[in-house]
Amino acid sequence: MENIEAKKKELKELLSREYFFRVPEYQRPYSWDQEHFTDLIQDLIDAKKDQEYFLGTIVVHKKDGVNDVVDGQQRLTTIMILLACLRDMIDDKDFKLSIQEKIIQKENIVDGIPEKVRIEVKDREIFNELIITENGTKTQKEGESLAEPQWRYVTAIKIFNEKLKNFSQENLRDFTKFISQKCILVYLSTNTFEDAFRLFIIVNDRGKQLRRIDILKASNISPTVIKSDVVRNSLSQKWEEWEKNLGGETFEQVIFLLRLLLIGEKSQYDLLVEFEERIFKKGLVSKGEKFIDVVCDYASMYNDLFEDYSYFDTNPNKIRIIGLLYIMNNEFKSNEWKAVLLLYLKKFKQKEIETLLSMLEMKYIEGWISGSSTDVRIVAAGNIIKAINTAKKPADVFTSDSLKVDKDKMLHQLGDEIYGKQYCKYILLRLELLASENDVEKKIKAKSIEHVLPQTPKGDSKWLNDFTLEERKFWLNRLANLVLLSKSKNSSASNYEFNEKKNKYLREKVSDYPRSIEILGIAEWTPEQLQTRQNLLLEKALDDIFI
Prior knowledge:
This protein is an alpha/beta fold.
């Protein structure tokens, strides 16, 4: 790396007329939240005012007389918000003017110096209104009603104002001088984006890690990969649009699912190395525009499948498919199965999708019941992915060993005590879905699980006459004795006698569940009744949703 400047600089120097900054389009939007704002202002307040305070590192790419911020935009933007708050709280006009000139350079007609904002952020409208405009931080705005990331600016201002509201005018001026004169950053600059990006990775590998997907994005739209600024900015906006639509965590999950469906194996390295060495270098996806397009295509599909549930709107079996997909999405504890579904739909569209969903669900349940580890589940998903990749038609996937399950063994395990098991709620939801009518779309969910035969019946309860101690122990946590509730449990009502319990407690809480409603028509809850119910439920528990 050549032509690199690395210096420790006071904030007053970085906010002088020698330096101007710009947040490039490929950067993600402003994303600091309440915890970051509170930590920063409290640290600054608590810092020893006669000593230097280290604000962090800023990595920039010098371009056309402006510093493109490759790393450090969150902290730099937040400092500008804090300075704007101090400007609007201080009464002294000269002091206010000095702060304002750190935020925006004043025009000097004599010297030919134009008015110029110190940092060009991506969120220009809200930044201009609240930060650049004098008294902008006094503007009354409710953060809850604002879109992303505007509400973050309002939140920062509220936190800073609250922390500083009891400062005297002298304290505010001293605090401002401390920030300007004693707060320092390590300024790393280079004339090439490539060197700036390398510095970005080095700094963040040794310090606090930024999201790997941000580095992945930046490396795929760097000037060495995509020469055109217009194309680069367009791809950046496309990426950010989907990240905004899905939310940061979900969008990141899509990237991890993409890695799995492309490689079909568990990770061997860090996410960045996985893409560089196992995907890009092997030609599974081309780096640059093609990769961004693939990510956004799968993000769109993920949104339609698991967020909007609109992917199957034209499918004749829409009601059943969405019903099943909804409980899988909400109850399954891991996500590798989603990579399988995404890849299958990408290759075969909706051909025989009901069969794929049924078999994929059974494969996941089998691993769940048997207590398979994460690695085992990923290997199983990888085997299905390989079967899809080599298949010429859907039937080739369905007949592969990768989707075979042992239903007899699964049913045997479901016949034991299942209350407290992670899969208990899912099996109960599945039974409700099987019993539901097929004429209205229904997304079934539950608040809690209730024991019909109570866990701790009272000493004089009829329950103790109807069940021996051994019978209570045997049936208490088995499938037949469990029902879903649409509302929270009532611990005292849980111990009611059966008739009182079903009429005063269960009736209003099981109305959403056709299978559970059956209990309301049962006259007595006895060991014999439980055995009959257990047999019926186990017969149905793993039935195909689509038959």
